[in-house]
Structures are given as structure tokens and as C-alpha cells.
Amino acid sequence: MSGHQFQAAPVIPVTPRSSYFGPIVVDPMTRIEGHLRLEVEVENGKVKNAWSISQLYRGLETILKGRDPRDAQHFTQRACGVCTYVHALASTRCLDDAVGVDIPENARIIRNLVLATQTFTDHLIHFYVLHALDWVDVTSALQADPVKAARIAGNISPRPTKAEDLKAVQDRLTAFVNQGQLGIFTNAYFLGGHPAYYLPPEVNLIATAHYLEALRLQIKATRAMAVFGGKVPHTQFTISGGVTCYDALRPERIEEYRSLYKESREFIEQVYIPDLLAVASYYKDWAGIGGCTNYLACGEFPQVEKDINSLWYPQGVIMNRDLVGVRDFNPAAIYEHVAASWYEGTEARHPSEGVTEPKYTGLEDKERYSWSKAPRYYNEPMEVGPLAQVLVAYAKGQPEVKAAVDLVLNHLGVGADALHSTLGRTAARGIHALTIVQKTEVWLDELAENVKKGDTKLAENHEMPDVAEGVGFCDAPRGFLSHWIKIKGGKIENFQLVVPSTWNLGPRCANGKLGPMEEALINTPIADPKRPVELLRTVHSFDPCIACGVHVIDSKTNEVHEFKIL
Amino acid sequence: MKFSLGLAREGAMERLASQGVSRRDFMKFCAAVAAVMGMEASFAKQVEAALTDPRRPSVVYFHFAECTGCTMAVVRTVNPYIDELILDTISLDFMKTLMAAAGNAAKAALEQAVTSPYGYIAVAEGAIPVKDNGIYGMSGGQTMLDTAKKYLPKAQAVIAIGDCASFGGVQAAAPNPTQAMGVNELMKHLGLPTQAINIAGCPPHPYNFVGTVVHLLTKGMPELDGLNRPKMFYGESVHDLCERWHHFSNYELAPSFDSEEAKKGWCLFEVGCKGMFVDNNCPKIKYNQTNWCVQAGHPCIGCSEPNFWDKMKPFYERIF
């Protein structure tokens, strides 16, 4: 972090609110991955009830049945092309587990390096490309004084900002607006002014300039990933038993990664985090809006493969926001509910027990209303993702995470309670990115050192067993991901995915408890029901990935499959 | 060479000159774009015209049953960059991933674009589920099936980006639970004459997509192969272009991923490479400007071929 103090920190604004009564439907939800419809009921300008509606069913798990288990990673990776790689990794770990292969040390490091790169890249893309326009009014940036804006930028970041560069961005946008074709800004909620946007024009200009810069920077961050991964999205270098990217072990390739990495790290440290703090300091009211209650993290970045105690970001469970009593995660306590989903039946089942037949009822149905299932942990909805990952690490005293969290809280002059919110979720994503990007170089050095010593082993051969089962976890950028495989006759008998967005964006469960995002939306103030940017803020703070979240399990049998739990 | 043309294209050359970019430099850039597209140097003139035409052509981008991987490939285009593409070259009037508006405001933006007298180019990402009247995929209160039916035939041109929109993709793999179809199969199914250009790949290389867009804007329809893919990008096989081809011709085949031969970068045919049955330019263009699957030591799975999910499986076994 820069060490530069951000001073503006205005008084906490009063969130504007209308006196509207009635429904609001947001469909299509934009700036997310996938197809989400949101319906809320508003009373006196505040959300009273919410329905999160996943609108796509693809049936990937049905398609996987009977195939070669090694092929699964390529299918599952197509669950999502935004948080790409994480499904390939979860499937590969799942198969490593099933076939009982131990991967070489360098393969572990490279898998971690690619996941780290995916994570910080994904987070910075989310902040600028998917989330920023909820907070930043691009048209207000046109009114800014570039000299004043450059001064503010210089105060919040160690990176020098020239007024003429900001002026050039302003000129470019002014010309764009004057030309009359607004493209991606057509009908934006901020056009013509919106009472829920309250950044000063100068901060809007800084953020807009960085939005455009981030569009370029993410290309390089992704390129770093591809040095190992072959291509992005949809990396192609993992195999059960290790990885295949011998070419990336050449010193010039490691240095290519390092140079792209360094540029990304500088951007995160000197642009993303300062921007996050600057924007957050004006929207402190959002530290009291949009919170959830329980959190689940499966932990990530094994320092010893398959050793849960070696995870650099620890696993854990937080109930009722109790950061003192953080518990160990128990995979046996996961149940997927379908009572409010477009599937037959009402019984909640462990992910390893395949069932359920699609049964669409219609958009007007408020009892069954989503293609997503509703995973619960000991019957409770759990938030997953960066806020869960950061809170668990913070609660467990993980030193790097604790330091970063304390820094952010001190900058904003708020306590840890503020993290249970929309703003906290967005800040946690930045903390997650920052801590991971700062650790990445340590792992890169380890790899370079091993290669220098002549260790170029990347893969371990193995046989495909006739019968086996396994599970692979990955604490992806969007949170807790698990893949479950059952092999029979050397083929996939059953394959299950329980993905972050079913946890966060799933519907109600059999007990009528709202999904985490639905819960988070309750009491959200709405200033203008025709332009409900407040809903977007909380929805986007979860970084939804709906294609991931829509899945179905075995549609034919009611057979109960036993899975071994790691 | 890096520069921005600015947004209002009237007086583009004057503004370039004020940035210190000479017409000669600009024409070099246009020639580079032409070269990327595999065109003659004289084609640079048409690139120039497209880049300086005052009204940016409207592009409407639909997401059907997909993973957004193609979108994420496109936002990594470098020639031009994505900000240049959407601010300077085209008017991206509807695209769920990037657009500021949501809900009814987004639907209104779509309606405005598709009713504009200037017309629009439609891009489709993802397959369209047809089973049970399309209820397995909905957006904006209507099925993807209805959206495709309503907006694709009216477009000046339709580009199907990625394997899903081109050929059905992963959700259409056996047993295709939702009867998902690519655009051209759907149009045939509906008895409509619309023909999409297929930019195959999972994801496709953004060059192949952006190059096609620029071709459409400057020269009209590119020459297509039998699968409606532009020949300029899909005219040669991955195998023929592969940097490991000489290993293949010397029978230097890696027997496994942990072998010394794999470390030495030998041909991956024995461990499942399908490159000889795949037409694409990945070895030449490279993904993310730096790498591609075989260079990363992994066999080609044939991701730009129709129904590769079933035809190329199992991915790690020799094909014959």
C-alpha cells in the first residue's frame, strides 16, 4: 500500500430515499456474467422483499455422465468464462483426489500462481468494468477541473498524475458525448444527474480515467496468466497429476510473467486500492447497507498440496457475524434445497446425492422462481467470496490479511462491523486482490529457484481406476467452489458442481430463508424506482456469475451416492 | 504504434496531427490492421475510411446460453484496443456485460438500436435452447428463442461468436438436455434465411472477431468456408501451422505428459492432439499475444470445430 493518507473523508452522507410503494423488476441485470432477473417489493422507498431469479439452465452435469473423467475439466471450465480456470482447477483437483496422484512441487506452485493471477485480475476487472458505474457518474467527470483532479489523484496515490492526461480523457469523453452516440452509456442511470451518486466531479474524472486504463491493464494481467495457461479465457494446461507448461519454465518466460505481473501489481497498489478508498470515503453510508449474517470459506493456496492446514488463506465458518468463534468447515453439512427452484420435489440433499427433474413454472410464480438451487450449511444461508475469505482470515489472525484489513479500516475511520455491508464486500475484494498480488512474487521466486536448481518436473503419471470417487475445492474469486466426481468403469458416473453463485444468489430454501443476496437487499433505500442504482450496487458487490450457478444433478436416478469427504 | 483517433470522427486527421501523428503513421497503422486481416496493402485505404467515417456503426451484442468467455476474449483485443473499438470504431449499443444501463433502461437501449434507420450489426454469443419453447433460457422477460427470432433476422449482418453460437457448443453436447442450437441451425429450424458468419473457437481469438467486424465495415462480407467461417482466419489447419510440426514429421511423439519427450516439446499426437482436424490460426496469432494450447504443452481439443465436444472426445486419447 502506498502509505499516502487519503484526507477527504467527508461526513457520512444521508442516503436519499423516495416514498415509493410497489414492485421493481430489473431484467436484464447487466454488468454481470449470465442471466439474472431481480424482483423487489418496495415500501416507502425501502426494499421489503426480494427474489433472485436465475434464468438459464444448461445441464452440464447431465452432459458429463459417461465421459472420460479427464475430459471433465474442459466441460466444467465452460461454466464460466469470466472466472475462468477455477473450474478447470477444481475438476483437476477432484480427479487428483479420485485417482490418488500426488502432484510435483512445481505443479502446485504453478497452479497457485495462475489462480493468484486470475484472482487479482478478476477483482480489478470487477471493480472498474462491472462495478464502477454504480458509483461513478461519467457525465459529471466532464464538469471536473483537471488541475484539481490531478492534485487529488496525487494525494491519494504515490503515482504521479498529470492534469493534461486527465484533460485528454475529459476531451475524449466530451467529444464522445457530443457526437450523440452514447454506446455502452446509453440510458445509464446517472445521465441527467441522479441523487444517489455523490462523488465530486474530480473524483468521477479520476475514476473514469482509471476505468479506461483498467481496460488496457487487464489485457496484460491476463497475458501473464496465459504464459502458464496457454490461453485466457479457458486455460489449457492442467492435467490430473500436474500441469503441462514446460515452455513456461524457460527463464525468459518466467521473466515475461514477472514483468507483466509487476505492472499489474503496481496498478493494484497505486490505482485500484487508492481509488477504492477514495470512492468508499464518499459512500460510507453503504457500510450500513447490504450486509449478510453468515460466511463460508474453503481456503486457498495450499503450501503443501492436499494439506488443509497449509492453506495460505484459511478455511472457516463465521455464524452470526461472530468473528471470535470462527469454526472449521465441515463439507458434510452442505445441503442443496430445491423447494423454491424450478425442479421437482422439496427435499434438501447433500450435493453427492443426485436427483431432480427440471420443472419450470413461470416468471409469475413467487414460490418456485429460479433455476438456481439454494445451498445451505447446517440449514443456514452462507455468503461466500472475498468478504467471507477476508473475514475468516482476519478472524483467524492471518497476518498479511489482518494488516491489510486494518489499514483499510483505519483509512476509512470505521470499525470491523462496517465490513458486513455492500461497501465491506467491495472493499474486501480489494483487500483480497492486494494481499494475493503481494504474495504472488514469493511463489514466483520459489518456482524460479526450483527451475534454477534443475527441478523441471511438472507432471506425475497415473492410471485411471475402474471405480473411484473424489472431491476438489477451490476458493475462487467469487468464493467457495466444489466439484464432486464418482467414477465407474473408468467413466464419469456422476459429476456435481456446487458453485459460488448458487451460494450467494440462490433462492429461498425449504425453510423459507432468503438467499444471501436476497437478504442483503432488504432495507435498501431507493431514491428513484425507475433508475434503481442502489439495487445494482448490492447485486454487483457479490460479483454474480450466473452461468456458473445454474446446474442440475442426475435427472434419472434417486440413488444416494456416498462421497468421501476430505 | 499507439494513438487514439478520438471520438467524433469529423476532423479525425486534424486531431491526429495535433497529437503528433502524421498521415503516414496513420496509414502504417491501417496497413497493419489490413495485414492482420490477411489483406493486400491497398486495403489500408478502406480501413482508413472505416476508422474515420463520422457515424459509428451500431453493434448489438446478444448473450444466449453461454459462459461470457467470448466477451472476455473480445475485451482483450489489442488491435484496436477494446476502448478504441467501443468508443472510436463502433457504437456498442447493447451488450449486457459492459453497458451502464440495466433492466428497462437496458431494454429501451436495445429497442432504440434495433429500430434505428441506420440499422445494426448483431453479434450472438451462446447457443439458443429450443426445447419446451425455449424456457431454459430467458432474459429481459422473454426467451432467448424469441429474442433470436425477433432481432437476428433484421440485422444487416449477424456474427456468431464462439463455438456455442456457431455450432451449439458445450450445452449442445450429447445428450443436449435443452436442445441448444447455434444461430445458423436455429434459423434453418425456424425456416428463416438468415446466415450468420461463424467466428469459431472456445473462445475464438479476438483478432478473428474484430478482423471480421472491420471487414464487414470496410469491404462487406468476407469469403467464408463451408462452415461459414471467414477463410482468412480459418483457412489452414492447426497441425500445418504448428511449431511442433517438424517433430511430427520426424515421428518425434511425446508418449506421456511426464516424459522427457514432453519436456523437449515433441509432438502431442500420442497424448490426444486433434490439431490435424482443426482449421484455425492459433499457432500463428497466439492467444493473449503470447501463447496457445500446444505451446503450453497441452493437446489441441479442436475447439473451433462443430460439436468438438463429442467428435474430438476423449481429449487425451489418440484420434486414430
Would you mind describing this structure in some detail?
The complex is a heterodimer of chains A (566) and B (320). Chain A is α+β, with helices and mostly antiparallel strands and 566 residues long. Chain A is built from 16 helices and 14 strands. Chain A has a 3-stranded antiparallel sheet. Chain A is globular and about 65 Å long. The relative contact order of chain A is 0.20. A 5-stranded parallel sheet of chain B has the order 2-1-3-7-9, with helices on both faces. The termini of chain B are far apart. The interface between A and B is large, with 100 and 96 residues.
Write the layout of secondary structure elements.
The complex is a heterodimer of chains A (566) and B (320).
Chain A: E1 22-26, E2 36-43, E3 46-54, H1 60-64, H2 72-77, H3 86-99, H4 105-131, H5 138-141, H6 146-156, H7 163-179, H8 201-229, E4 238-239, E5 242-243, H9 251-282, E6 295-297, E7 300-302, E8 311-313, E9 316-318, E10 334-337, E11 374-377, H10 386-395, H11 399-412, H12 422-452, E12 467-476, E13 479-488, E14 491-498, H13 500-505, H14 516-521, H15 533-541, H16 546-549
Antiparallel strand pairs in A: 1-2, 2-3, 4-5, 6-9, 7-8, 10-11, 12-13, 13-14
Helix pairs in contact in A: 4-8, 4-9, 4-12, 6-7, 6-8, 8-9, 9-12, 10-11, 10-12, 11-12
Chain B: H1 12-18, H2 23-36, H3 44-52, E1 58-63, H4 69-74, H5 82-89, E2 91-95, H6 103-114, E3 121-125, E4 128-129, H7 131-134, E5 138-139, E6 142-143, H8 144-151, E7 157-161, H9 162-167, E8 180-181, H10 183-190, E9 197-199, H11 206-218, H12 231-234, H13 238-241, H14 245-249, H15 260-263, H16 282-285, H17 308-311
Parallel strand pairs in B: 1-2, 1-3, 3-7, 7-9
Antiparallel strand pairs in B: 4-8, 5-6
